[in-house]
Amino acid sequence: MVRVGLTDCGTMIPYGHQSISEADVDEVVRVLHSNFLTQGPMVEAFEQAVAEYCGVKHAVAVANGTAAAERILGTERIPCLTTDAERS
Description:
Oligomer: single chain
Number of helices: 4
Number of strands: 0
Structural class: mainly alpha
Radius of gyration: 19 Å
Low-confidence stretches: none
Mean pLDDT: 80
Order of helices and strands: HHHH
Distance between the termini: 49 Å
Strand content: under 5%
């Protein structure tokens, strides 16, 4: 069996490039060590910063792209598209 990896051809397939500073890493570590990982003051600050950047009154942070699409399309309350946990 021949196994071919992305780098076997000599070039990786680029999908994007991110810029992460040491300050970014330090801030993530600070939040990870706090009592608020998924909610709390940093989420509120992030939402406010996004709203200001976009020139709108409100912004809402969600877990992923699917959750964002559901909110945009208004499908979060359609039974066939929600999980049992979301319905309760």
